[in-house]
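Feature request disguised as a bug report, sorry. It would help if multi-protein outputs had a clear separator. Right now it looks like this:
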Amino acid sequence: MSRIGRLMIEIPDGVKVRQEGRTLRVEGPRGIEEQVLPPRIAISIVDGKIKVSREEDTREARAIHGLTRKLIANSVAGVSRGFTLNLEIVGVGYRAEVRGNGLQLSLGYSHPILYQLPPGVKVKVEKQTALTLEGSNRHVLGEVAAQIRALRPPEPYKGKGIKYSTETIRRKAGKAAGSAGS
């Protein structure tokens, strides 16, 4: 049996969970999330806990058991606490500012870039080079962070670009460092 899939999901106070057919609806203070249950997976809600189980013991059911449990747990955590991701902008003259429902980025190109945020994602800019993305859907939040990072990925020679705060950039020596030793 899946070690992840057999864990129970605690439903925190202020969160309502309802099953409507194959759809699980999770409502909380930070919004509403819906999760479609795959075939061969069943859930039961007992005493403020959600139990995810397999209807049959096939290869496909075993493969998606733990995944389904984790997706439901992310929905419950998202509507109760929410998720955050931190990005850092490194480079002289590189900066960001919030413009309405978007993010204006100056990344060394000839023009500023206006990135429109999807609904449910908020951004805070601290000291023009630190971004904090907040949202209740972990998947959408990760997609937005990856799209912002892709606008100017960090390069290995000077380390300039947009990076995750937990990411370390492996630096390379330039061409002058390679020929100086000969």
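(second protein starts here, but nothing in the output says so)
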Amino acid sequence: MATDASDQQIASAEPHRKIEFRVAPAESSGIDAESVDLIAVAQALHWFDIERFFDEACRVLKPGGVLAVWSYERTSLPPECKDIIEKAYTETKPYWPPERKLVENHYRDITMPMPEIPVEPFEMRLDWTADEMLAYMRTWSGSRRYMQEKGSDPIALFEEELQGAWGRASREVRWPLTLKVGRMRHRD
């Protein structure tokens, strides 16, 4: 089952015969109590009313069920590209929502509502062209808000410089992941 508060997000999801899609806020899912083995939250916990979401997660998880939340950091790239991307991030930083601080702090300020399971650090990796990287940078919350407020594309300021430094070949882009996992206790 996949839920999202946005009907647009659900409508744009690729259908799958084994997945039921529902429009529902994370804090009030409408899922039966003690019916879920795993709740996975990818790059979204910082947008939730966290305490209300944790209450809902504890309600719907079966005893022994797992809650896994993760987010990814800024990309890890060679210095000649990373420095340009950092300049773009600095340009958009005033436009990022305050919730971004939770991600930048690796969710350290978030206490899971159940005993945590230790996890090893890991990362996502993709081979991308400069154009793919630029398209991704335009999806940043800070970039989108900048565009709305200023009426111009902040990434365009760095596009030519990044394409020159990146070259025509694909490069490996890495995102360090922050992962917090907890297991629901068995109820008395």
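Even a blank line would do. Unrelated, but nice: The first strand starts at residue 2 and ends at 4.
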